[in-house]
Amino acid sequence: MSRDRINMTLAICLLVAFFILTCRSLSASSGSGITVEKKLHMKGAFVRAMGYTSHTKPILRETINAGRRKLIRVSEDNGKTWTVIGEDNWREKRGERTARRDAGNIHVDPNNGILIQFFTEREYGPRGGYGSFGPGADGTPLQARTGKIVYRFSRDEGKTWTPVKQLIQKGADYDETHWADGIYYGKNMGNFGELMR
Questions:
Q1: Is 153 within 8 Å of 167 (Cβ atoms)?
Q2: pTM of the predicted structure, to 2 decimals
Q3: Residues with Cβ within 8 Å of residue 185, at least 6 apart in sequence
Q4: 3 state DSSP class of 55
Q5: Are 143 and 123 in contact (CB under 8 A)?
Q6: pLDDT higher than threshold 90 for residue 6
Q7: What is the pLDDT of residue 155?
Q8: How confident is the model at residue 174 (pLDDT cuts 50, 70, 90)?
């Protein structure tokens, strides 16, 4: 065996011995090793949307589904601590239908600090989405024929917002019904996630 190889083997053995001794002394001094504390803050909750609300500060805003509620919470320390600031359970009656919005995705324009939040808005029938079939629907649920994208702006890191507007593709061929290429309200739908792919 060459002298370099012997030196390398000896160095590795010394490192392993040092690691084992260090682990034993840590274990002996702490008594029980490393303790991980697990806390359940909200059973069944999951994050629907999250985004930064500032291009200069570590402020996060997220929407959490917690059962039938959508909670909005904010962190001003990059997610270490959170404060619930309200709920986002927007619904609007439209005759026999009810319009609802998904949790909105937030995007910050770093050039001017303006926030834009996009939502997918759908209509549901009186018996929920899947009982809402009708003539010309080809068995497609109502919410799959009425989805559209709406948006709003904030100039103060999400404290206040402009009224919501529908997203409509530029051009003379597009309006509130035919709002994007190949997408027609009442026939099919588009949502923000699909359009961003």
A1: no
A2: 0.65
A3: 145, 146, 148, 176, 177, 178, 179
A4: coil
A5: yes
A6: no
A7: 92
A8: very high
